[in-house]
Amino acid sequence: MTSSGDDLQRMYAHRFDESDRERESAFWDVFFAEFLSRRVGRPGTVLDVAAGSCGFINRVEAPQRYALDLNPDVDGFAASGVQVLHRSATDTGLADSSVDLVFSSNFFEHLPGPDVLLEVLAESRRVLVPGGRLMVLMPNLAAVGGKYFDYLDHRLPLTDRSLREAVGLSGFRVAELIPRTIPYARNHAATVGDRPSRTGPTADTSRFRLALRAYLRTPLAWRLLGGQMFLSATCEK
User: What angle do CA 17, 20, 109 make, to 5 degrees?
Assistant: First the structure.
């Protein structure tokens, strides 16, 4: 897109350390099991757009899994069986109607403008089979306010309403839109129960897992603490 792979590698190496990565992995373990697994099911081919640490794509069960990201570090995060694509989200290189599920987490806010978002959505629609699904997890400006721009690379402001509009204009039918799910933080691992433990990293991570699991099982808490929205839509062709 507008950033090179080297730019992304430098920014995220500066932003996240090894302890962040450990708790990020714990986040995806719990979030996938408690929230995503029943929504995702077992699709045949999955594309994770801006896969990052591969938290989602490493956990989904599918015969064909693609992790798309310009950051060269993604090669080291991808599990065995995940094919890494160092390509733009507007030009994935995949065949028409070849993907059952496109997933994207915390990516759209990094795009330079609405026109590029529509290009990304158009590419997602192109590669999806008729009736294929798009799932998006990202910050909701309406929920977090000015904190949305606490990070240098957050450029495109989106609320649940503007995301719905963009997806609808791009030929998708929204099946589920939750304006508030997990809290908003520097990384997913800092979302719930983020107080250092005196008993060390392992105990701290275990406590984090328990806190996140309890939070995800209490939807009323999402309305108070949630800062990220979740959307699931079906590709109409």
Answer: 95
